[in-house]
């Protein structure tokens, strides 16, 4: 069982919004921050820049859009402070621990699969006491590929010693997580916590919370190795 981290296990959007609004003293700039982040993450995924450069440039670009011109040292200080506040704002969704405990009890091997950067993601999982649940933590920057690239999913299956058809991946991003996993031959599960009305592509499963995952595993994914009777 592969699980995305940000906005799947950890309420990343809440923490990021909180950190940004505390630093700039206003709460209405999140859409701009998200837009600028998406542009810069696309450049990381394309292999043009690494995450450290991305964080600096994203923040510089965001401040410039707000009309604030800072020299690189001040941008670095702002970014450093933002990460400190962010780290104090992590919280798990309420359904994460019961789900991970259920998977462990059912003897399912578990991987965290993230497109974000290494040290940062491991710190988050450790800070929240989640490291112990995972057999493997797959980080895009270390694998050299990122979701939705099949290479990312297949590398995880290789480590977990299973065929893609014996694995499932759950994440909050419909295309990056669920469609990417489906196209790589895994079961793709979209975690739609907001319950929107997006059209769901064929072959993609949808759950509204991680509390629905055990039932899906038992009823639909018997080949993943979850005992039907518990
Ligand atoms: Mg996510």
Automatic annotation (TrEMBL):
Record keywords, A-Z: Hydrolase, Magnesium
Pfam family, one: Hydrolase
InterPro entries named among the record's database cross-references: HAD-like_hydrolase, HAD-like_sf, HAD-SF_hydro_IA, HAD_sf
GO biological process, one term: small molecule metabolic process
Gene3D superfamilies linked: HAD superfamily/HAD-like, Haloacid dehalogenase hydrolase-like domain
Reported cofactor(s): Mg(2+)
GO MF entries: hydrolase activity
Highest taxon of the lineage: Bacteria
The protein's name in its UniProt record: Putative hydrolase of the HAD superfamily
Organism: Amycolatopsis endophytica
